[in-house]
Task: structure prediction
Amino acid sequence: MDFLLSRNTATTQKLEAYRRDGTFLWSIDLGPNSTNKNNISPGSTTINVGQWDGATAYDLDGDGKAEVIFRIANGVTFGDGTVWTTEESDSKQWLAIVDGMTGELKAYSDIPEDYI
Result:
């Protein structure tokens, strides 16, 4: 992955990954919790709000390829087609680490309520 883009659609926000030659790698749909980005308290999966972008790309495991880190909540569809669904409320958030080449979820951890 060489480029990570955030896109606003009519219904959700998305993350997309591309190689430098323009080859499309994957897209992650941030789901219904990304739609209210213009509110004072944006949705639990909103990225690209004002001067803050809630996605980070970095090689965390030292394999020479970047992973992508961002918040997730119910309704996120990963690059491999997996949909994140839990029994928790839609406002419950997790920190996700995604494979930068495939868009597949590699790891996650819940975010304590006092840090949201």
Notes: The mean pLDDT is 87. The beta strands are 3-8, 13-18, 24-29, 55-58, 67-72, 94-99, 105-110. The radius of gyration is 14 Å.
